[in-house]
Every structure is written in C-alpha cells, then in structure tokens.
Amino acid sequence: MITTDIKKAVSVLQQDGIIGLPTETVYGLAGSAFSEKAIKAIYTIKNRPFENPLIVHLPNKEVIQAIVKEIPEEIEFLLETFSPGPVTFILPKKPTISDLVTAGKPNVAFRIPSHPTAIEVLEKIDFPLVAPSANPFQRISPVTAQQVDDYFNKEELLVLEGGTSYLGIESTILGFENNSVVMYREGYLTKNEIEKYLNYSIQDKSDAKAVTAPGMYKKHYAPSCPMIIALDIEKEIERWQHKKIGLLTLQPTNFKVYHSIGLSTTGTTKEALSNLYNAMHVLEKAKVDLIITQIFPNDAHGFIINQRIIKASYI
Ligand code: TXA
Ligand code: MG
Hints:
Blueprint: E1 2-3, H1 6-14, E2 19-21, E3 28-32, H2 36-46, E4 55-57, H3 73-82, E5 87-92, H4 99-102, E6 107-111, H5 116-124, E7 129-130, H6 145-152, E8 158-160, E9 172-177, E10 180-185, H7 191-198, E11 203-204, E12 227-230, H8 233-239, E13 245-249, E14 259-262, H9 269-285, E15 290-294, H10 300-313
Parallel strand pairs: 1-8, 2-8, 4-6, 5-9, 10-11, 12-15, 13-14, 13-15
Antiparallel strand pairs: 2-3, 3-7, 4-7, 5-6, 9-10
Helix pairs in contact: 1-5, 9-10
Magnesium ion (MG) is lined by residues 132-133, 141, 214.
C-alpha cells in the first residue's frame, strides 16, 4: 500500500522490514544494510539470484569511510562532482558491510541519492539502506509509487510516495581498477559526461560477458508483452494491425495504433531516456499485445535507450 507517512516508513525499516523507497533514478526496495532479515526479504520478494549484490544507500559523504577501506583520489573527485545524484561507486568494503550485501564480493557498491524523500528517510535512521530497483527480477524498474504497488501489492509492501522519479533511469555504476576509473553500468550519467570532468577515457566494462554488474543478464528491463525493435515502423504496424499495438517512438507520431507514446516533445534523447521506463509501464498497464519501438539516434543518451530496449526485447 502507498503512504506519504515518512514516520511509518521509518518505523518499518527500524523493525527489520522493507519498503518501496522513491529515489531520483528509480524506486528502490529498501531495507537496513545491517539486517539479515531485511536483506533476505529483499532477495525473496524480488526473486533475485543471491549472487547479484545490492547497492548501499547513504545520507551523505561523511559516512562513506565507515563502509569502504579507502577512497582513491579520482573517485573522491567524482564524488565531489556528481554526488548526491545518479552515480554509484564500487570500492573495497570494510567488515561493517556483510557478505550478504555484496554477495560475497570484497567490494561494496554505494550511492548517495538526491531525492528529498530518500534523504529524509536516510537522515532519520542510524543505518544505511540496501536498495535494488523495486521490480521483480528482469522486469522494468518502477518510477512511480503506483508501479511499485502494482508489482508488490500481494506482498503488502509499504510504498513511500515520492512522485515520479525525475531522472527515470538507474544510476551509472563506476569502480576503480588498475589505477583508473571503470564503468560497469551506464545509467543517467553518461560516459561522455564523466570523461569531460576527468579529462581521460574511462574503461567501459558495461558490456562484459560476466554477470558481475547490473544489466548484464541478456533479458532485462522487460515488459510482460513482446517488444519489437522495428527498422521500418510503418511496415511493422501493418504486419501486426490486428493486434493491440503500443508504439514507442522518440517523438509523437500520427500512426493509428491502440496506444502511442512519443518520448520527447523536443526530440532530445536525454528527455526520452528519462521518460522511457514510465512509458513502458504505461503501455504495459494499457494491456497492449506488443510494443513496437525504433532504434534511437546513437548519441550519448540514445545509446543508453538502445541498450535498454535491446535487453527488453530479448526473448
Ligand atoms: O539507480 C539505482 O542505482 C537504483 C536505485 C534504487 O538506487 N538501484 C539499482 O539497484 O538499480 P539494482 O540492484 O537494480 O542494480 C544494481 C546493480 C546490481 O545488478 C548489481 O549487479 C550491481 O549493481 N552491484 C551491486 N553491488 C555490487 C558489487 N559489490 N560489485 C559488483 N556489482 C555490484
Ligand atoms: Mg535493477
């Protein structure tokens, strides 16, 4: 059930429970990073494999040193530049963080969200929160409280209302290997933007084969109906004309289909990226038979959209 009562949400967390938590990227399924019970509940409710570790959410930069061994200078610089905000860092952990959080890995992923509700919750408790995106394994990350509730109302999950996640796509995940910055998942913050600040190219490991980071499973971010990436939208619509088609394009179009969404009125891929997950949820809720979409322009943000829709359309 959805609530605006922060005190109630905090009290659930203090009693080893879990909640749906709004953040600026996507909603998370949050519980105490120090509670075995809460962590296990998160894996169970998400149906997430235990080898896939969780991100620790912190209220501010001061508490980082309580969970990681040391912060390399470049990461310190990136933290100053981009945190709080849509960026997660992976660094060697201190024993304060249990193996359950990191799936036995020696490193912990952490981020400082910038969403006012998330910050308020984190400031009211005296433990960090683990929070994966609040979707069942391989489904689309939710960006509204209602979407979280739709996924988990049977489990009677308490979902804290925080409006629509205004960035609408997951955080970018960075680490540090062999003295340089590495990217494991490209999210709202693009590789280009990070490199502009660093003044050097970062290693991109987001397409590595191994399942060591998010989005590395082939099928991911998927709606419950099939999704087709069309080279020729008109032809594809004609081919499926007897079906309830959900159409997802960069800008609004005049095609006559069951439900059509243009992701950006101005045609910018940055705006489209922020609206992508919400639009996929809207089409899913409209019970379309299939989603037809396009390949997006291959600029920095369009590239991230393409990555997500390719994973969403994987059968
Ligand atoms: O924007 C976000 O990052 C959202 C919001 C809720 O903060 N969270 C999120 O969490 O996207 P999740 O669990 O859906 O994706 C995080 C990914 C996981 O798939 C996991 O593989 C990777 O981060 N990860 C977490 N801890 C890690 C670690 N210690 N080492 C390597 N990868 C890690
Ligand atoms: Mg996720």
